[in-house]
Amino acid sequence: MFSRKLFFGAAAGLALCAALTPGAQAQSKHKIYLSMSYIGNDWQGEAANMIKAMAASKTLADKVDLQVQVAGPNAQRQIQQINAMVQAGAKAIVIYPISPTALNAAVKNACEKGVIVIAYDGEITEPCAYNIAIDQEEAGRITAEWLVKKLNGKGNIIAITGVPGTSVDTLRTKAAKEVFAKNPGIKIVNEAVGMWSQAVARTELSKILATRKWDQIDGLWMQVGCYTANAMQLEAAIAEEKLKPCAGEGSNGGRIQMLPVGTEVEGANGAYKPMAAPRISYASPPYSGALALKLAVQKLEGKDVPKKIVLPLPVVTNETIKLCQEGTWAEMKAGCNAFKPSIVTNPGWFASIFSNDTPEIGLDAALVGQPEN
Amino acid sequence: MSALAVPAHRQSEHSLVRTWFERRRGPFIAVAAFCLCLGIVKILSGGTLGYYEIGTLAAGGATLAIAATGQTIVILTGGFDLSAAAVISLVNVTLAGHMQSDPASIVLWTLAGIGIGAATGAFNGLFIAGLRLQPIVVTLATMFILQGVTLLVMDKPGGEIPPGFAQLLIGDAIPGVLPMPVLLLLALVGLWLALRNTVFGKALLAVGSDREAARASGLSVRLHEFFAYVLAGAFYGLAGVFISAQTGSGDPLVGNPMLLQMFAAVVLGGTQLGGGRGGPVGTIFGAYVLMLVVNILLVLNVPAFYSSIVEGAILILAVLGASLSSSSVLARTLRTGLRRAAARRAGTLPRQLDLPTTRLALPAPSPALDTPPFWRRNAEALRNGAPAYLCFVAVLVATQIVLGNAILSWPYYDSLIVLGCFLAILALGQGTVILTGGLDLSLPWTIGLCGILCAGLLKGSDAALIYAVPVVLGLGALVGLVNGLGIVALGLSPIVMTLAMNGILQGIALVYSGGTPNGFAAPALRWFMTGRVLGVTPIVPFLLLFVAGAVVLLGRTAFGRRVYAIGNGERPAELSGVPVKATLLRVYMLSGVCAALVGILLAGFSGQGSLGMGDDYLLPSIAVVVVGGALITGGRGSYAGMIGGVLLLTALQTLLAGTTLPYATRAILYGVVVLGAVVALREKSS
Questions:
Q1: Which of A76, A102, A104, A176 is nearest to B154 (CA)?
Q2: ipTM, 2 dp
């Protein structure tokens, strides 16, 4: 009876496997694994598309056999996954690390087996790992300094932070608060946890505004949520020219709002339209995963790659905002940094997709995973 | 149906072996599922299964296995512990900050880690066994408090665990033969088997199977319940020690995602929620099945967007495949279905026959009795629901004192209702499911998928609302129907079914949106959630109607009474003529429709759909239901009480958001207030 059960179960399982096993892979390519954490949010989905596009680009297509795996938000599972990738014969592992520290033992083990481990966006503190990310403290400091200057060193502000307990959030918030502390005229009157989500930013701002009015607020420092904050001010019948200065994320919705009033953009809709909103827009760029893949291949080919790469912080202000017509890499290199709502219909989509080092990927890569060439 | 099932069980088949097996069905299913998964990995990857692989595998799943073992003990006594994952994080950051490499420090901090867990367990036990509060509310509050404390200890990942200690727990017990994690788990199982044969162990199971019978036999129910939590806490502490050794560092968020997995492991291992049956052996194998899924996904090379779909399918197939037998629910459903079809062909179904009416004639209602006054008729509902409302008023007063602008300000109430509307709607679905003794864990991605689909269909057009809204609500009903079918026809536990469904829906949302959700809400929908008419947001009157309708649905209709009947006992309900299966299907469909409605409203509130938009609503949806006085094991609670829970939690969050307190302090305060509220106003009777 016991064995019969096992048989039925095994048959069911094998049927599932047979349906999913892909054909044999070419052997001459480098076997590279990508370990993503959680793909259930917009940033991760976009980053995944750009990595896919990079792997399919002419530069890498015949060099790389890329397999993408998702660990979910659980560090335990990512550890398990890294171990399994090493056992499966990975040459390199590209990781979006769930934790900067929890993976160290597994990463060290992988390095000892000769596997190159390269982390993007987040950081892995194990010394044998390669890291690609922006300087989070710089991000916090520059945005806070901009806001102080915009308010002439005086005013009540609201701070919306990221995910508590993460290095990225702690470093950004701490650096920003140090700037505010040096300017006694600036007072943080409310602080809320925004989880790096436009939807949460709206919920938290609504809670704050249940007992406070917009005219008691002079400015906002948000890790994600300026687009939403501007939309809420319009709903509260605040005129466009009186929008509060907001230091925050690099969402395309926010970038479009920064364009001068009257700029012609296709597909503008509701609050997703030019309104000359006073903004500084920065981001952890979603191209970092694609760049990590490219560098991993370079390293496998014997080139030297630095252990720690600090990406230039993509910063856009009202002075540097410029609308793209098509969003090719060449056009972005010429300086455009916002995309038409008719092409990018999701205003929460992250617009900092340009890097000098990745001519293989442009707007199509981020949207649908298509490389430039 | 019960009459048809009788001939299938012939007395002669009940040999001793069979009885022995039937009593241990749960663990066997878990072991079979584990072998199945391991077999799939090995066949497909073609690799060897040597000592090194076994060692890595054992270390990878040990934290979850140890923690889930603790959770099993609590569940065996009929409890529920949401604080488990938070204990793991707290122990991890404490050890990472303090442990040195000398042996004395290692021993001291290992004991301290286990001690932290046991102390948390004692705290939980004190409130649950001592003050007779609901486990889920107490442990939820403890979870928030611990998360806050953890962030106070360490606000970002860091710290270091001495490598020697890591080697001690992860390395070899007998080099080349026995990895340390396996020895540790064997020791835990040994401990459990020894414990089960003591008076204490038997008493734990007795308390879980039938509290009243245990009390009547002279057992001290409270004392045993208390020690179950302490023991479980010690296990979570040990899991925290283990994860510290495994990762070699501290991370304040490391334990949190393990909470749902822990329940899945327990249920996979054959332990039933509600207590009395099961044990840690099955749980341990259940935990390893969940970890092996990662390897299966890797060898199958499942595309990223499909991975959560395949994971959900594996979870369901593993449980189903391992439990296939002639007496499984699936087999019974098939048999019954075939018999019904045969009977229909033969024309012998009861409704095809011309039978005389057998309905009993009820006596005419006697007019002599006075209807008791309202407060007495609804005394129980008032007693259970009132604490939430009283605490809500207290929070209102506190808000007025701390922030001003509250009690006499309409905009404050307007914001409160708009912010609370999502939870109020979810409370109807989740609340009804909980009233039947189930739990719906598929809410996050039902909301997410429905919100994304809604925005995608609308593309900013008001006219599209006419078909988009029914389509999305229909999708919600479909999701609920599939959940319900999995539970009643396949016999899956609600936790496994809805958890798997959540993963499947996440995958569908990713594939549908291609990773970037398109479209945005129609202007009319945005106005509905964010506009103002004479200072009133249009959702407010709609919500009042919804609440009134929900109160009637649960309190005054036949459907509502059936829900309560099922929650109080499925078997008695069935014998009393309640169509249990049909009602359960409707209950899960109701939950799906409520989640879909929240998806639509959230899309209107935010202006568009986004991936993960429902993630923050799962635990609150359960919390409002139980804070509002419902019993997590089903049968008791009222929708009016749940609305009190919604108001209380929303007002509390609004109050905390108005301050500049750090997040850690807020989390602690939130937990303390919730706990204080239920303590101060607990039932005074017996």
A1: A102
A2: 0.87
DSSP conformation class of A98: S
A199-218 residues touching B, CB cutoff 8 A: 199-200, 202-204, 206-212
Interchain pair B249, A167: CB under 8 A: no
CA quadruple A86, A91, A95, A101: dihedral, nearest 10:
60
pLDDT in tens, B385-422: 787 888 899 999 999 998 887 788 888 999 999 999 99
Confidence at residue B681, expressed as pLDDT on a 0 to 100 scale = 66
User: Please, where are the H alpha helices in B439-464?
Assistant: 443-458
pTM: 0.89
Q: Which of A5, A81, A99 is nearest residue B324 as measured by Cβ atoms?
A: A5
Please name which of A372, A109, A98, A206 lies closest in space to residue B167, comparing C-alpha atoms.
Answer: A109
Query: Distance between CA atoms of B570 and B556, rounded to whole angstroms?
Result: 20
**Domains (range + CATH), chain B:** 24-301 (1.10.3470), 380-397+421-680 (1.10.3470)
Contact B603, B517 (CB under 8 A): no
Cβ neighbours of B454 (radius 10 Å): 30
pLDDT at residue B113 is higher than 60 = yes
Neighbour count for residue B130 (Cβ, 10 Å): 12
- Considering only CA atoms, which of A156, A155, A177, A270 is closest in space to residue A223? A177
| HSE value, Cβ hemisphere, 13 Å, CA-based, for B254 | 39
CA distance B320 to B457: 36
**Strand ranges inside chain A, DSSP E:** 30-36, 64-70, 92-95, 116-120, 130-134, 155-161, 186-193, 219-222, 246-248, 279-282, 308-311, 315-317
- Nearest-angstrom CA–CA distance, A4 and A233: 66
Q: Considering CB atoms only, which of A80, A204, A270 is closest to B520?
A: A270
Q: Which of B684, B653, B594, B241 is nearest to A204 (CA)?
A: B653
- More confident position, B142 or B328: B142
CB atoms within 10 A of CB B3: 6
Residue B78 and residue B275 in contact, taking contact as beta carbons nearer than 8 Å: yes
In angstroms, how far is the first alpha carbon of chain B from the final one?
40
Residues 6+ apart with CB under 8 A from B605: A199, A202, B418, B529, B530
β-strand A64-70 against A30-36: which pairing, if any?
Answer: parallel
Rounded Cα distance between A349 and A369, Å, is: 15
From chain B, pick out residues whose CB is under 8 angstroms from the CB of A70.
Answer: 297, 304, 307-308
Task: Pick B21 or A205 by higher pLDDT.
Answer: A205
Query: Can you tell me the mean pLDDT for B572-584?
Result: 92
What is the predicted pLDDT for the residue at B369? 67
